[in-house]
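Hi support team,

I submitted a single chain yesterday and got back a structure, but I'm not sure I'm reading the token output correctly. Could someone confirm the output below corresponds to the sequence I sent? I've pasted both exactly as they appear in my results page.

Thanks,
R.
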Amino acid sequence: MFLLLGQIIKEKILERVTQANCISMLCDEVSDVSNKEQPVNFVQFVDRDFGKAEIDFLAVDDVAYKEENDCTAIGLLKAVANIKFLSTVYLLHEVLPALSHLSKAFQKGNISFSAIHSAVLYTTDQLVEIAAKQKSLESLKRDLEEDGKLASTELTLTTSSEDYLRNLTTKYVDSLTKNIENRFSESLLIFTAFEILDPMGVPAISDEAFKEYAISQIKIFADHFFQEKKKKKELTEEIECEWRKIKYNLLELKYQVSQHILDPSPKNKNLSAQTPTE
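Hi R., thanks for writing in. Yes, this is the structure output for that exact sequence:
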């Protein structure tokens, strides 16, 4: 009874998944009470009826190799024990740390708007370098050598396989960089302009730059937020006037910042290195 209900639900989910334009899989491994390891599968897709992303539990599969003709285990092994699969894994191993740097710029509790522009540039440069130097291909070659990590797999990297990985890397990186450019081309200027709210960037009153500090960024805000307003000129002048007063408040905050914020590095502590995705 329960197996039948589960099968019906699974078929309904798969029906919605097959109609979606974008899907992704999340697989993880768990152990039951008998210490038998089983992969748990979730599927994420854009529901066409509701127009939003959905995540549904799909299945728990037993892929333990029980006998010589175990189709599930053999099928899974064939899927991963080939050059194309390994090429994709090695490519993601190079790309994900670069993307993680940009992603985490938006995940922290206190977002530094002044760091977003540099994070975008850094990520883009890293991706371009990965494609230019074909880092994933070089790593795969090295690990397939006689004394490499994958020597026991007895897999060989043919000329066609190398061409496949080169083309895959180039196309994937091109798509990622274009996606980043499309996402930030219009908003990056606004994000960067918010850096004027950082008290540490306000020059001293005695500095000649203080008088006109951040006026250009204020105009960027006005052009963006008041672009459809009838009284755009008056509103722009109003926020410029407000800003000329606010920067005095920011300057006062600058002198109140405590030393442990200015220099947050712990004293006399051995800091452990972060992983590439942290």
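A quick pointer for reading it: The chain has three domains: 16-66, 74-185, 194-262. Let us know if anything else looks off.

Best,
Support desk
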